[in-house]
């Protein structure tokens, strides 16, 4: 081995040593003699390092390399690494074999680690030589000495250079440290790109949202990450770009990929994820998906209220006192829960067993603390500050750091009691000022969730600015936006501001009320109560509740002016949606009532006996939901009345209340009048006290429920009174008995089914269900569209039931005839079967007949009657024509040239009367026919004659005339007529 | 997967176990935050245990819009957080400014 070679090696090794500056300095001072020792020491220190941590070592190692071999080949690195691991063992060997080294040297030479060992060998040789005292030098020879001197000189020079290199290395180290794990993020040099420029475009990869089991999102993201990393170096890596998850989107993970197939592959074999259920996120929603702020987040600033979510104070309200520098710890002020160990028990071994009971929140009490647990109490920094069990108390409050994760900023909803405790300090301080803005912040979310008003302020509210330059300024709200309110100043310390518009943050405003204002509470426990302001106390207002008659203290901003005590608009809120105004409710087993007033916590109910009862919602058994079918009664005249009908109370006492029925319970009617003011106009009455004025939609009364009129014994009154007989005759129609149409063979004469034949399977008042001969189908047809086939001949329905006597078993018995007339009448009018017809009369009045629409059928009936009765009468012939089956009775009427027709049509003039008169003979006879049945009462006729004429003549008066009649007689229906 | 001890680097958003931050530093930010040269406080100060939104970033991060949007497109593969509560302490921020590193808080307070 050549010496020059060795020289280089030494130099290199020195360089290495210098990588550890401290060591190299020592080496310098120590000189050659102690070199071996130095090496050893170095190796020891390295060994110690190794013990520390491999990673760290490696890093250091890398740095060393860079320092020294910045220009060297990379190849050397490996060697250096090797060297690094070897030295311990190697150095030991050296030390042990210092004097036997010559032999060892040979061994070394023969080894493969050439470079290293050469170097070591050279070193050793030197050491060996120097160790071997000067005397040996002669043996080595002059040449060698010269060389040695040279080398010494070289080394010194080298060392000087190395010293510089040391500094150089230091600077290099500094520099390379940056470049080596260079920060690749945004630097000022590279320029920062505004996020706006990063907005996604259509060319960006698609993001798919994939459904997964909620709660497994994070797992899935990690698993997919592992999967991607694992497959990254394989033949076909996953082509998904990123996978992510947000807490605000539960049950979804999001995968960014160019192709949907990539997602399928990525998710193949994954559990907890529904690969099929995926949605493509629209490009413009990308940024929202990765927003850093949830809009609902509340910024934590000192002073806001929060709740603690863990530990002893879980659920407790706390006030943020301060934030740690990094924003991760929040120093909170809260009311301590301490029992000073009072409730602790001592176990058998004398150990203290902490009480499981959670102490009530109370302010820190120094005396108690000293009394029960004195050893843990010490004075704090201030006069009223203490440290108790390593926690700090100031003015009785606990000040404690909580981790950001353990506090809740949303939905805090501080209660007034809690705030009171905070501000009053349990009654010590007395006067406290509530920080409304802090509360506002905690309420922020509630409002958002409700989607309701963005601020409690409404235009025209009188407000005061609470703080800032404009504090104490009073103004009127003009408009509100999400967090700002525009006001116009009405009163200010500086007159130049007056009438100027200002925009103020909501938090800085307070509503101003004056004593005596009537207000409604909008938030909190007392929401929707109304009351009278009796005292204004800073931000809070004391009011006397209308409902509870108690004092309530609320924040001014929770109030709005209200004029009315009842809160109909908020009825649903008040009752929890259970009750509404005018509902029929069960008060107790025997009483029902109708809600006439809703207030928070108290309803006023008009009971069935007419009393007004105040009752709590909880006192109400339930809402009565009666169907229309159940809500039916009869009025004093026996007419069916149901909900919606207008009835008139016909009682003594002078006032006749009138209104529409809103509830019927048994025979109690709850009627709403438009004229009465009290109780929403609702009054209670008995159904027997009212008479029907109008019915609501005729169909209702007809198709639902049994026809009570038919069963009403009142209507079947024995004919004690004049026209009553006629009435009853007309009305007593087919009481009992089956519909005559049943099982008849019929043909449809009009409508869609015209011409079809069938059997009547079923029939009601209006319609018949016909089983068709042609097809096996039942159709519903109006009865008057039918003709009944009697002995092969079709007889129109109306005739069939009216005049179709011949076929009847009774034969054309005169006595029966009027009975038949009744139902026909009903048919004519197209309304109720019996004197329901009269209502039609009422509606149409004379004109109906004149017009001939109702008259068509009507006349036939009449004709039928008359014809049946007195065939000899002149009028009767015309009418009688009606009897003949094929001829339309109406037409007969119409055709009749007699003054009767004209009279009817004209409906006026004296001739009318005469005509009637003329008819009257006939008609009278006809009627008389009716009467004649009753014989005794001719007065009926005369009544007709008198009043009837004039009445009919005038057209209006006629009715009154009728009315008169009715008054006299027992014509129930007539009264209705009369009113018409 | 002990999420309890995991922390997110406030500069780059990388999520790692606390111990790894202490032992090996942050693979992205070591050159500027020097987790290893400082005591553990540096890790305490510059990483946050409170973060939300996990993003798995692979090798092909340059193609990813998500990575670009979150400004993690030049970082090493790993799990990153979308939102990290907390801010770097001021002295670290001024340190970073000296080193020309742009710090953008990831707690949602950055505006641009």
TrEMBL record, chain A:
Compositionally biased tracts (Acidic residues): 60-86, 102-121
Gene Ontology biological process: regulation of DNA-templated transcription elongation; regulation of transcription by RNA polymerase II; transcription elongation by RNA polymerase II
Annotated protein name in UniProt: Transcription elongation factor SPT5
Entry keyword Nucleotide-binding: no
Domain KOW residues, every copy: 299-326, 456-483, 512-539, 640-667, 739-766
Family stated for the protein in its record: Belongs to the SPT5 family.
Ranges in coiled-coil conformation: none
Amino acid composition bias (Polar residues), ranges on this chain: 13-22
InterPro entries the record matches: KOW, KOW_Spt5_1, KOW_Spt5_2, KOW_Spt5_3, KOW_Spt5_4, KOW_Spt5_5, KOWx_Spt5, NGN-domain
UniProt keyword list: Elongation factor, Nucleus, Protein biosynthesis, Transcription
Entry annotated with the keyword Protein biosynthesis: yes
Main localisation: nucleus
UniProt region (Disordered), positions on chain: 1-165, 803-980
Gene Ontology cellular component annotations, sorted alphabetically: DSIF complex
Extent of Gly residues compositional bias: 803-814, 824-835, 851-867, 877-910, 945-960
Organism: [Candida] railenensis
Domain NusG-like N-terminal per the UniProt entry, residue ranges: 204-293
Composition skew (Low complexity), residue ranges: 836-850, 911-944, 961-980
GO MF terms, alphabetically ordered: mRNA binding; translation elongation factor activity
Signal sequence interval, chain numbering: none
UniProtKB/TrEMBL annotation, chain B:
CDD domains found in the cross-reference section: Spt4
GO BP term, pick one: regulation of DNA-templated transcription
Family annotation (SMART domains): Spt4
Residues spanning the membrane: none
Record localization: Chromosome, Centromere; Nucleus
UniProt GO cellular component terms: chromosome, centromeric region; DSIF complex
Keyword Transcription: yes
Domain Spt4/RpoE2 zinc finger: from-to ranges: 6-85
GO terms, molecular function: RNA polymerase II complex binding; translation elongation factor activity; zinc ion binding
Predominant place of localization: nucleus
Keywords in alphabetical order: Centromere, Elongation factor, Nucleus, Protein biosynthesis, Transcription
Family membership noted in the UniProt record: Belongs to the SPT4 family.
Entry function: The SPT4-SPT5 complex mediates both activation and inhibition of transcription elongation, and plays a role in pre-mRNA processing. This complex seems to be important for the stability of the RNA polymerase II elongation machinery on the chromatin template but not for the inherent ability of this machinery to translocate down the gene.
Protein name as catalogued: Transcription elongation factor SPT4
């Amino acid at each position: 081995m050549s010496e020059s070679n060795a020289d280089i090696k030494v130099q290199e090794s020195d360089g290495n040593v210098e990588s550890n500056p401290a060591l190299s300095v020592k080496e310098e001072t120590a000189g050659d003699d102690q070199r071996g020792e130095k090496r050893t020491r170095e190796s020891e220190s390295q060994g110690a390092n190794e013990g520390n941590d491999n990673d760290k070592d490696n890093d250091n190692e890398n740095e060393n390399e860079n320092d020294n071999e910045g220009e060297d080949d990379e190849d050397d690195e490996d060697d250096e690494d090797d060297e690094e691991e070897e030295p311990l063992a190697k150095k030991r060997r050296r030390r042990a074999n210092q004097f036997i080294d010559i032999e060892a040297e040979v061994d070394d030479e023969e080894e493969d680690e050439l470079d290293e060992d050469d170097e070591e060998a050279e070193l050793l040789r030197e050491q060996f030589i120097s160790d071997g005292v000067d005397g040996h030098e002669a043996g080595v020879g002059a040449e060698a000495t010269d060389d040695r001197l040279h080398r010494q000189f070289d080394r010194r020079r080298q060392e000087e250079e190395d010293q510089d290199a040391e500094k150089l290395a230091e600077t290099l180290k500094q520099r390379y440290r940056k470049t080596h794990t260079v920060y690749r993020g945004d630097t000022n040099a590279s320029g920062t790109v505004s996020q706006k420029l990063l907005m996604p475009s259509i060319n960006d990869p698609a993001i798919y949202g994939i459904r997964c089991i909620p709660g497994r999102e994070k797992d899935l993201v990690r698993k997919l990450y592992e999967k991607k990393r694992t497959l990254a170096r394989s033949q076909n890596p996953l082509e998904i770009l990123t996978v992510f998850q947000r807490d605000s989107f539960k049950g979804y993970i999001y995968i960014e990929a160019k192709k949907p197939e990539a997602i399928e592959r990525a998710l193949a074999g994954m559990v907890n994820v529904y690969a099929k259920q995926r949605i493509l996120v629209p490009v413009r929603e990308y940024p929202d998906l990765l927003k850093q702020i949830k809009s609902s987040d509340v910024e934590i600033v000192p002073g806001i209220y929060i709740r603690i979510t863990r530990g002893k104070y879980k659920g407790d309200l706390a006030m943020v006192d301060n934030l740690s520098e990094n924003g991760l710890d929040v120093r909170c002020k809260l009311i301590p829960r301490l029992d000073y160990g009072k409730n602790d028990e001592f176990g058998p071994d004398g150990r203290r067993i902490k009480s499981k009971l959670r102490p009530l929140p109370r302010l820190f009490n120094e005396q108690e603390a000293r009394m029960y647990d004195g050893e843990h109490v010490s004075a704090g920094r201030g006069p009223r500050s203490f440290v108790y069990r390593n926690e700090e108390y100031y003015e009785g409050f606990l000040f404690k750091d909580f981790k950001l994760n353990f506090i809740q900023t949303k939905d805090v909803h501080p209660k007034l009691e809690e705030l009171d405790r905070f501000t009053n300090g349990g009654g010590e301080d007395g006067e406290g000022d509530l920080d409304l803005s802090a509360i506002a912040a905690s309420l922020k979310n509630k409002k958002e969730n409700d989607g309701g008003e963005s601020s409690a302020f409404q235009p025209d509210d009188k407000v005061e600015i609470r703080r800032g330059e404009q504090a104490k300024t009073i103004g009127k709200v003009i408009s509100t936006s999400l967090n700002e309110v525009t006001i116009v100043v009405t009163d200010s310390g500086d007159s130049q501001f007056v009438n100027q518009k200002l925009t103020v943050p909501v938090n800085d405003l307070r509503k101003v009320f004056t004593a005596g204002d009537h207000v409604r509470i909008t938030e909190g426990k007392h929401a929707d109560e109304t009351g009278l302001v009796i005292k204004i106390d800073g931000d809070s207002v004391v009011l006397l509740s209308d409902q509870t008659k108690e004092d309530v203290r609320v924040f001014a901003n929770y109030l709005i002016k209200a004029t009315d005590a009842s809160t109909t608009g908020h009825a649903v809120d008040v009752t929890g949606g259970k009750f509404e105004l005018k509902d029929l409710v069960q008060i107790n087993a025997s009483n029902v009532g109708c809600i006439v007033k809703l207030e928070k916590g108290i309803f006023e109910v008009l009971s069935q006996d007419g009393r007004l009862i105040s009752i709590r919602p909880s006192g109400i058994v339930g809402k009565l939901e009666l169907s229309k079918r159940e809500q039916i009664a009869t009025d004093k005249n026996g007419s069916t009345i149901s909900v919606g009908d207008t009835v008139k109370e016909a009682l003594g006492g002078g006032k006749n209340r009138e209104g529409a029925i809103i509830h019927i319970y048994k025979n109690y009617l709850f009627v709403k009048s438009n004229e009465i003011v009290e109780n929403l106009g609702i009054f209670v009455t008995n159904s027997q006290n009212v008479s029907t004025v109008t019915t609501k939609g005729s169909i209702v009364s007809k198709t639902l429920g049994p026809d009570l009129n038919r069963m009403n014994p009142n209507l079947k009154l024995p004919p004690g009174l004049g026209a009553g007989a006629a009435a009853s005759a007309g009305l007593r129609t087919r009481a009992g008995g089956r519909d005559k149409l049943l099982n008849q063979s019929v043909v449809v004469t009009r409508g869609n089914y015209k011409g079809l034949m069938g059997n009547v399977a079923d029939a009601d008042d209006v319609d018949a269900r016909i089983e068709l001969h042609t097809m096996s189908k039942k159709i519903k047809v109006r009865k008057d569209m039918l003709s009944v086939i009697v002995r092969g001949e079709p007889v129109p329905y109306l005739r069939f039931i009216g005049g179709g006597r011949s076929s009847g078993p009774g034969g054309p018995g005169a006595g029966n005839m009027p009975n038949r007339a009744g139902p026909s009448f009903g048919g004519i009018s197209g309304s109720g079967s019996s004197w329901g017809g009269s209502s039609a009369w009422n509606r149409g009045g004379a004109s109906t007949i004149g017009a001939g629409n109702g008259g068509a059928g009507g006349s036939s009936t009449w004709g039928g009657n008359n014809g049946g009765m007195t065939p000899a009468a002149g009028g009767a012939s015309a009418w009688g024509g009606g009897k003949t089956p094929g001829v339309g009775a109406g037409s007969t009427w119409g055709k009749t040239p007699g003054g009767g027709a004209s009279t009817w049509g004209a409906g006026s003039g004296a001739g009318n009367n005469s005509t009637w008169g003329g008819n009257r003979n006939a008609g009278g006879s006809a009627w008389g026919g009716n009467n004649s049945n009753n014989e005794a009462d001719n007065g009926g006729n005369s009544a007709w004659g008198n009043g009837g004429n004039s009445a009919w003549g005038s057209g209006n008066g006629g009715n009154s005339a009728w009315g008169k009649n009715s008054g006299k007689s027992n014509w129930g229906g007539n009264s209705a007529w009369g009113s018409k | 997967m002990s999420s309890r001890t995991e922390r997110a680097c406030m500069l780059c958003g990388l999520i790692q176990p606390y111990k790894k931050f202490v032992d090996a530093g942050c693979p992205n930010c070591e050159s500027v935050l020097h987790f290893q040269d400082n005591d553990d406080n540096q890790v305490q100060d510059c990483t946050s245990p409170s973060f939300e939104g996990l993003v798995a970033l692979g090798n092909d991060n340059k193609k990813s819009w998500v990575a670009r949007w979150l400004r993690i497109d030049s970082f090493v593969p790993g799990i990153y957080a979308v939102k990290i509560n907390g801010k770097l302490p001021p002295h670290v921020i001024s340190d970073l400014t000296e080193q020309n590193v742009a710090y953008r808080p990831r707690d949602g307070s950055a505006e641009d």
